[in-house]
Specification:
The protein is an alpha+beta fold. The protein has two domains: 19-170, Glutaredoxin (3-Layer(aba) Sandwich), CATH 3.40.30.10; 176-232, Antioxidant, Horf6, Chain A, domain 2, CATH 3.30.1020.10. It is built from seven helices and twelve strands.
């Protein structure tokens, strides 16, 4: 009798589900191999498809930018290892996109023919039972999922936004702040709501240096780009 294993989709704030997998860069144990680093685990529907090709070329071209932010990229599709290798070779030898050519993908691409990893991470959805949607998981250095973004099969991802999310998460952690809508390094950040009446009153009266309050629940402060870059150790 055939049995199926039920998976609950991982959630923000939970430990990233562990797995061992064969990749184009050898066998990995995720997220344990990347302890102390951020990682972005992302899925694509299939090798030798145009949207996925444009995405892999973009990620590979930005790989050093993510590395500078102490972040490892890890890709996945439900194709086999030999398909992965042939596809990545074709990208390097034949494909040109937006001025990018001779692009070598050096980050690991997971073989997941069994769909075990894709199912464990909720990457197989109603849009297709045989292909992974475009999922993105941001995992912090302690192995905790910090952000999740899903895209349908037909929609290529915005890679500037993926980097912005990573930078914003690291900035929030480093400075104990929150980042407002459309935040970019150098923009004002949100100061957490005051924990005591005295602090709130001081803020409202403009006594807390560098903090501007528009009401008790909405206070901002300056955080210059250079300070963020110095703290994160990367040029932004």
């Amino acid at each position: 009798m055939e049995t199926t294993e039920n998976y609950v989709m991982p959630r923000i704030g939970e430990k990233a589900p562990s797995f061992t997998a064969v990749t184009t860069q050898g066998t990995i144990n995720f997220p344990e191999d990347y302890a102390g680093k951020w990682s972005i685990l992302f899925s694509h529907p299939a090798d030798f498809t145009p949207v996925c090709t444009s995405e892999f070329m973009t990620f590979a071209s930005m790989a050093e930018e993510f590395k500078a932010l102490n972040c490892q990229l890890v890709g996945l599709s439900v194709d086999g290892l030999y398909s992965h290798i042939a596809w990545l070779r074709t990208i390097k030898e034949k494909i040109e996109y937006k001025g990018m050519k001779n692009v070598e993908v050096k980050f690991p691409l997971i073989e997941d023919i069994s769909m075990n990893v894709a199912k464990k991470y909720g990457m197989i959805q109603s849009e297709s039972t045989t292909k992974a949607v475009r999922a993105v998981f941001f995992v912090d250095p302690t192995g905790i999922i910090r952000a999740i973004i899903y895209y349908p099969l037909s929609l290529g991802r915005n890679f500037d936004e993926l980097k912005r999310v990573l930078v914003a998460l690291q900035t929030a952690d480093a400075f104990g702040v929150a980042t407002p809508a459309d935040w970019r390094p150098g923009d004002d950040v949100i100061v957490p709501t005051a924990g005591s009446c005295g602090t709130a009153q001081s803020r409202m009266e403009g006594k807390e240096e560098g903090v501007t309050c528009y009401d008790w629940f909405f206070c901002t402060k300056k955080l210059n780009k250079e300070k963020v870059e110095k703290t994160l150790g990367a040029k932004l």
